[in-house]
């Protein structure tokens, strides 16, 4: 014969206490201790020789320590078992829009003598959008020019030197262009002229970030920005179009590498010891 196994607990099933839900004793959680009726907010949890305890603070500021026993507390009238809160997972380092590690609470550095010049206001706003945090920490000021036709004279007036380097970002810097001929006139070792191949900095924004298949081709002889607006079916208001484009840029991931590499190169050049 097979022996019968009996439960050591002879309490009838209908009288047995059901397990209470476990609730993390997070700070400021308000509970009531079942035995004393003391009601308060969780201040801290501690590990003791007798087991874990929780400290509660009532509305008068009085503190009391209780063991964290099963079914020991009421939460909104429901019996619960308090348990130690789970350790928070380490958060990933925050990054700036350019992908650099953010420096929380960092103050802007006093501006360096060196500068970065870009061709126009849109270029400057785009650089600020993505690299602004980095530039403030490094103390680099970005200024915009009204084109680069007078770049040699602008460089002479700046008087660059080892402690005042000048970086220049040029639009449409491709072989045989007017911009490339002007850039070739700059031979000072304290000046770095780099550029991207786009007709305008608008094109440096990825089409996918704007929800368009590609940047349109504008026939020669037409104003490029107006032609873009017309081809995309946007109102022919280039200022409004630029705000639409800029608002689609949230980080370096929205920009094409031909611009990303050049701006990073200029920042490194201007901030080099």
TrEMBL record:
Region spans: Disordered: 1-26
Family matches, as Pfam families: DUF3097_C, DUF3097_N
Lineage top rank: taxon: Bacteria
Coiled-coil blocks: none
Domain DUF3097 residues, every copy: 22-85, 115-271
Protein name in the entry: DUF3097 domain-containing protein
Organism: Streptomyces botrytidirepellens
